[in-house]
Structure formats: structure tokens, C-alpha cells
């Protein structure tokens, strides 16, 4: 069954349709929210809010033309709302333990590279970071990203292009700093 069909089922009172959507998308939405917020609990809260809104809209009979971009739009707005809160202070937990990985150098190297990339991505503004995550981590097409973020497709293309250029500068700068520090 298509995602949009599940939304229709919600409007007819079939609450188990939400279970199918949660099963299909929970991990993806969580990964997206976590990458944007860098906090497991907040990411889980965003996921719950996202599926609650999907459920509420489904009960009202709302069936989006394209479910996936609509769902990511809800999650993106939840992340934006978090960032807009004046009292919000981001805390970075840079000390992640690598317990249990002694002797597995290739796994550690990949984890460190991944952390380096995510830390670099997180230096970008939200508008560039969100399009890059949606494109490269969530594998959305330009048109889907445009629907998700309520921006024109050309703006998506520009933000991806500029975001990649800014990311390249950040990575080159950090690479030079790493060479100097050795």
C-alpha cells in the first residue's frame, strides 16, 4: 500500500495505518532529526511530534499529494521550532566513548571520519545543513526537498551547491589545522 493510502485509511478510522507509517519511517525521521539536532532525546521528541501531527492530520482527512516530503516538512518544522526557542541552549557532547572497539581500527577510523563530517556539517547554517541532510542522508530528490522546505527547486539547487562549497572550505580548513597540530 502507498503512504497516501495509509493516510486515507486514518481518515476512515483505521488507526493501524499509522503503525505501518511509523514502521516504515521512524528510523529515517529519527536519523534526520538527530543529524540536525545532535541530541538523541530531542530527536525522539521530534519523531513523536511528527507522527502525532501525521495522525491528527490523517484523522481530519488530510491526504498529502506526496507523503514523504510532507512528513519531512513536519519534522523540519519541529527542528526549526526547537532552534527558534529563545531559551534553547545547544550543548555539544564531544566526549563519545568508543568502548568495546579496541583493536578494530577500521571501525574507529570510519566513526571518526563520520564524526568529523557531521561536526563539519553542523558548522553550516540550518538552511544549508537541512538541504544537505535531506539530499545525501535521506536521499530525497530536489523536488521533494523543495516541497519539504517550502522553497523553489532552484533555491534547493543553489543551497546544495553553496552548502557543498562551504563544507569543502570547512573541511580544508580543519585538515590544515590537523596538519599544523601534529
From TrEMBL:
Residues 117-167 form the RNA polymerase sigma factor 70 region 4 type domain. Keywords: Sigma factor, Transcription, Transcription regulation. Signal peptide: none annotated. Residues 22-87 form the RNA polymerase sigma-70 region domain. InterPro entries: RNA_pol_sigma-70-like, RNA_pol_sigma-70_dom, RNA_pol_sigma70_r2, RNA_pol_sigma70_r4_t2, RNA_pol_sigma_r2, RNA_pol_sigma_r3/r4-like, WH-like_DNA-bd_sf. Belongs to the sigma-70 factor family. ECF subfamily. This is RNA polymerase sigma factor. It comes from Paenibacillus oenotherae.
Amino acid at each position: 500500500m502507498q503512504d497516501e493510502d495509509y493516510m486515507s485509511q486514518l481518515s476512515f478510522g483505521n488507526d493501524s495505518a499509522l503503525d505501518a507509517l511509523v514502521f516504515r519511517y521512524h528510523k529515517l525521521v529519527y536519523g534526520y532529526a538527530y543529524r540536525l539536532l545532535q541530541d538523541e532525546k530531542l530527536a525522539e521528541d521530534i519523531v513523536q511530534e511528527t507522527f502525532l501531527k501525521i495522525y491528527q492530520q490523517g484523522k481530519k482527512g488530510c491526504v498529502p499529494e506526496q507523503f514523504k516530503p510532507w512528513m519531512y516538512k513536519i519534522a523540519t518544522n519541529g527542528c526549526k521550532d526547537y532552534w527558534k526557542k529563545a531559551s534553547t541552549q545547544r550543548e555539544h557532547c564531544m566526549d563519545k566513548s568508543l568502548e568495546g572497539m579496541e583493536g578494530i581500527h577500521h571501525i574507529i577510523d570510519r566513526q571518526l571520519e563520520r564524526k568529523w563530517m557531521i561536526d563539519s556539517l553542523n558548522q553550516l547554517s540550518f538552511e544549508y545543513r537541512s538541504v544537505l541532510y535531506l539530499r545525501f542522508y535521506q536521499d530525497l530528490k530536489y523536488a521533494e526537498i523543495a516541497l519539504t522546505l517550502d522553497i523553489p527547486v532552484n533555491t534547493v539547487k543553489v543551497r546544495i551547491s553553496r552548502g557543498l562549497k562551504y563544507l569543502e572550505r570547512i573541511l580544508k580548513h580543519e585538515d590544515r589545522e590537523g596538519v599544523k597540530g601534529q
